[in-house]
Recover the amino acids of this structure.
């Protein structure tokens, strides 16, 4: 966990490394931005840079005992609290406060990282405010959150907020080629599906995603050639798995969107799934533009109904009948 190994996020990293070099680090930071884009990694990289023992610019070497301990979660002066979506209770905050009041054992600073900081309840947040009002001199606090608006305004105003933006598709694709050894086409697909999150891009099952898209393409393009009886029977099967049906419709929307984009721009790089190009071209030949827009309305409308907990059977039967006309 070093700044050097973080993909993207040049701006936040520049702000932090400059503050380190000039000795102007704040006492408390908020790292905000969408889930899974690398905020927590950056918090650990900052912790490593602060406590790194190697001489020279303080960027975190990744090799000294301190950097290693931080990477393995075993550094006595670096504490991580993870809400895991559950309330952070006041007892936990008090415990951390008494620990922060101590001198660092071996590092330059005591560092507290709270991941999911918006989960502090009112009592915890108010207790925590005391620490922010009178921070111990050798402590650094990093609140990590995808919902900064969920923090008390009095907490926000006492921290320096650093915003992390989703990674661009190009940056993600490039990193996925390097880290997962993917082909350009596969990396480009996953980069679109990961929506700016390196974490998601690394975790996603490529073969599963590709197979699901082929299945969806077969389903959505085959409806017009399917008999009404067969349509109803397929609808019944799909309706049994609501989540599966939602994913299927999402992929239908994604593919139709790709077809429209290809038709309007001719630019393959804008497609989510370049592999579907031939299919999209066929669709564009087969259907007038207006029909494609109508189908898009039907798909997105069905998705909304599913979100509103309307009967899956009803939604999918209606959708199939209209798309199969
Ligand atoms: Zn080091």
């Amino acid at each position: 966990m070093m700044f050097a190994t973080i993909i993207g996020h040049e701006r936040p990293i520049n702000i932090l490394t400059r503050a380190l070099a000039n000795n102007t680090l704040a006492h408390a930071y908020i790292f905000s931005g969408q889930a899974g884009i690398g905020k927590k990694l950056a918090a650990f990289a900052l912790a490593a840079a602060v406590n790194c023992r190697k001489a020279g610019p303080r960027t975190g070497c990744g090799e000294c005992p301190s950097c290693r301990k931080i990477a393995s979660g075993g550094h006595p002066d670096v504490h991580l609290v993870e809400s895991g979506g559950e309330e952070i209770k006041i007892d936990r905050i008090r415990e951390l406060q008494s620990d922060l009041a101590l001198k660092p054992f071996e590092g330059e600073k005591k560092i507290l990282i709270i991941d999911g900081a918006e989960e502090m309840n009112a009592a915890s947040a108010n207790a925590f405010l005391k620490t922010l009002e009178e921070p111990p001199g050798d402590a650094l606090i990093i609140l990590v959150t995808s919902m900064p608006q969920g923090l008390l305004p009095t907490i926000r105003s006492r921290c320096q907020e650093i915003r992390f933006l989703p990674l661009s598709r190009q940056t993600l694709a490039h990193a996925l080629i390097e880290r997962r050894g993917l082909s350009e086409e596969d990396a480009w697909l996953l980069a679109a599906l990961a929506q700016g999150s390196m974490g998601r891009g690394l975790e996603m099952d490529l073969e599963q995603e590709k197979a699901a898209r082929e299945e969806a393409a077969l389903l959505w393009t085959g409806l017009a050639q399917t008999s009404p009886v067969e349509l109803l029977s397929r609808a019944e099967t799909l309706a049994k798995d609501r989540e599966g049906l939602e994913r299927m419709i999402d992929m239908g929307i994604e593919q139709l969107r790709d077809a429209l984009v290809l038709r309007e721009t001719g630019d393959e790089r804008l497609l989510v799934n370049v592999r579907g190009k031939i299919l999209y071209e066929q669709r564009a030949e087969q259907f007038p533009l207006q029909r494609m827009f109508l189908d898009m309305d039907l798909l997105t409308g069905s998705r909304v109904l599913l979100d509103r907990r309307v009967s899956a059977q009803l939604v999918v039967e209606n959708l199939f009948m209209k798309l199969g006309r």
